[in-house]
Amino acid sequence: MDKIPSPLFDEAIKNMLDSLKDEEEMTDKQRRILESAIKIFAEKGFHGSSTSEIARDAEVAEGTIFRHFKTKKDLLYALIAPMMIKFASPLLLKDVQRIIQEDLAADETLHRLYKNRLDIIEANWPRMRIIVQEAWFHPEIMDALIQNITWQGRSLGDSFVRARIESGEFRDLPVHAITRAVFSTLFGYVLFSHMFTSSTESMNTEDDIRLAVDILLNGIRNR
Q1: Where are the bilayer-spanning segments (predicted)?
Q2: What CA–CA distance (Å, rounded) separates 55 from 72?
Q3: Distance CA 134, CA 157 (A)
Q4: In b/e form, how buried is each residue of 192-210, taking b as 16+ CB within 10 angstroms?
């Protein structure tokens, strides 16, 4: 398997991480500020939110926010940096490596990989939504997302695809093209299920994941 490069962070996020306390060591006020910021940033976006409304929701003075977080953007970094670390941590990547290394058919491997990543996303969706929203407006967040999460995922994905091509299970197409299709299916599923699906629609996760994998591997053309 290809060696996974060390995570790379934009300097601003590095500095933020160095100054952050572990969330378990935060004071009650710090925790309330973060919880309110997650809720309001997710609803209104970074630019559509104000520290005054975050303070009101957290029931603290606005000045209290700036005692703990120098700027509004530092507060944003405090929300997303732990999520990026969690997603790319060696412990979680071991889950991906373990699934890839199991002797399973491609459809079952992809199903387990998707389910593994989706469980993490579901458990952390408010923060993930903020990352998805704000990456388009903050280049340093997009860079960190690509370098810290996407790069490592692509390295593992390329190794998986290359092995399946060599075994004859996948068509002999460019590795990067197949890996891109695998990632696009996962990200598309996440975005559609959270942002474009009516709240009245029933989402059967297991069935939907298996259907997404089936369409990825077999297409939609009636043969």
Answers
A1: none
A2: 12
A3: 25
A4: ebeeeeeeeeeeeeeebbb
* C-alpha of 21 from chain center: 22
Distance CA 9, CA 15 (A): 10
Query: Domain-by-domain residue ranges, the chain?
Result: 11-78, 80-218
Handedness of CA 1, 216, 107, 105 (dihedral sign): negative
Length of the chain: 223
pLDDT of 81-125, one tens digit each? 777 776 666 656 788 888 988 889 999 999 999 998 888 888 888
Domain 80-218, classified CATH 3.40.190.10, yes or no: no
* CA angle centred on 116, ends 192 and 77, rounded to 5°: 70
Is residue 51 within 8 Å of 65, Cβ to Cβ?
A: yes
Query: Which CATH code fits 11-78?
Result: 1.10.10.60
Query: What is the spatial distance between Cα 199 and Cα 97, in angstroms, rounded to a whole number?
Result: 34
Write the single-letter amino acid at 169: E
Q: pTM for the full model?
A: 0.71
Residue 14: count of CB within 10 angstroms of its CB? 14
Eight-state DSSP code of residue 59? T
